[in-house]
């Protein structure tokens, strides 16, 4: 007898394999040149180009895991390969997962989103100052990065470094400054990993349990994230764990850094497990009962505050759809996820390299095109041809207008290569090729960032990346 279900399963596998191959061979740049055919790339070639040893992907369609696949090497010392069960550091994607524990405790009336968090903190308090006189630090503000709290992110600790407690991190007794309030809470949006370290302390104090134990028992197991843990340092799970790689694609000493700032950066997970988180939120919105949160709580979580930030995730608010998302960057790991609330799609991409963002962008564009998601579209530009004489006015050594932690003065070198400007960043080994859009306006075709040179009173400057970075030309 012919097994109809077996035939159907085999047909589905072939279709899935074909879809994956189309995406694998369909990576393309953020910017296309007018009149030219769109050039596509293979994922493995682009991994080599970006010096990314390993990447892992999960795609959700119609609220179910469509496919998951790993590529490349997890550990060049052992030769182990990345598969769909390989653990990566989620970095800042830890934050929206940690937020679930807060929202659970709010549902149980243990916590209140709008009360002063000092009501919940035991042996450490947020110091009172002029900024907290009239406005207080609350969990709502901490989760939405509007609490006025300092410390953007954390570099992590090597395997041999002294591992501080949560309180020591808050007091600045680790490798980052003391976490304080330097702006009136509620006044501005400013990303703060320090704020999520306060959240971590709140959870530890009210539950009287280690943060990772609360997360494991109340969140990860509830969602079914069996291959995930907030344990730092990692001791219980050493198999099928990816090492971390720097901008040059070299393995980090000790394989990876550790992060006592667990709520902000400490989750070890897989794209498949993060896809389960996305699916859980989608299902609750569709009416699932006995989910990790109530539907009314999830709706609050996905309500936009300043800078379109929810209670944990960032939000893309569009008249046609709502997306919740987050990125993550630890030493040697670069990741991203996004999930539609109603369309049933989610995408999770995790890489084991500092230079993973460009690759993530290209993969996301290929996936968006294949599934017609309408995101991460490329734009078309019309370049202009400049003479070497015009380009030579812009070459030289440039200095960032502020000092960078752990680096200090930040310099880049700009030269001419193949009739284009070539940017070398010795701080991270990154290189960029700039295409001219005008005499002083340039674009990086790979990622779509634009920059504008400014020449005034014989002084030359460069504003780059939507005015995020400002450089000034210095004497050699």
Tags for this model:
alpha+beta, 19 strands, single chain, 7-stranded antiparallel beta sheet, Beta-lactamase, 2 domains, Lipocalin, 476 residues, 8-stranded antiparallel beta barrel
Structure description:
There is one protein chain. With about 475 residues, the chain is an alpha+beta fold. The model has no long low-confidence stretch (mean pLDDT about 95). The chain folds into two domains: about 280 residues, 3-Layer(aba) Sandwich (Beta-lactamase), CATH 3.40.710.10; about 90 residues, Lipocalin (Beta Barrel). Helix 1 crosses helix 11 and helix 3 runs parallel beside helix 6. The chain has an eight-stranded antiparallel β-barrel with strand order 12-13-14-15-16-17-18-19. It has a seven-stranded antiparallel sheet with strand order 4-3-2-10-9-8-7, sandwiched between helices. It has a two-stranded parallel sheet with strand order 1-11.
Summarize the structure.
Helix content is 27%, strand content 22%.
- Percent of residues in helices: 25-40%
DSSP helix count?
Answer: 12
Which fold does the CATH topology of the largest domain refer to?
A: Beta-lactamase
Share in β-strands: 15-25%
Average residue pLDDT = 93
N-to-C CA distance: 81 Å
Radius of gyration, CA atoms, in whole angstroms: 23 Å
